[in-house]
Structures are given as structure tokens and as C-alpha cells.
Amino acid sequence: MRRWSDDSISVGTAQRATLVEDRSAPGNYVMAVSFESAESAATNSDRPETGAFAEQFAALCNGAPEFREYDVVEVYGQ
Hints:
The protein is α+β, with helices and mostly antiparallel strands. It contains 3 helices and 2 strands, in the order H-E-E-H-H. It has a two-stranded antiparallel sheet with strand order 1-2. A hairpin with a 7-residue loop joins strand 1 and strand 2 (about 30-35). The longest helix has 13 residues, at about 50-60.
């Protein structure tokens, strides 16, 4: 994840990423990646580096990674 974030946040279009582990199910992780817009996220997804990382990441997972898209409604405490 560090390698991905170094590339995608500094070179790609990702603004920030947060990796969390489920306390009640250790070994289960969720990564939330923030982008300026849906278009910016799509641009990042189209990068060859992103595709290569996705393949490497999938190889580390027990099952297929799930990707979801959300819109920020409100932010607290920033």
C-alpha cells in the first residue's frame, strides 16, 4: 500500500488514502481513497501503474478485492 500511495498520491490523481483493519475481523482491511472528482478517479484507474498494482494487490488477497464508489456527503472534524 505504501508503494501504491507513493505513486498514486504524488504522481496520480489520488488526494489521500486511509487503510483500516476491522477490529472484529482481524485480517480484513478497507482502503478509502479520496479524489477531487469522479473524473479524477477514472483518470487514476486508467493509469497503467494502477492496473499493475491492482494485479499485485489481488494476488495478496484471499478473495477478489471489491471496489466501490461513494460520494462524500459531509466531512466532520477536518
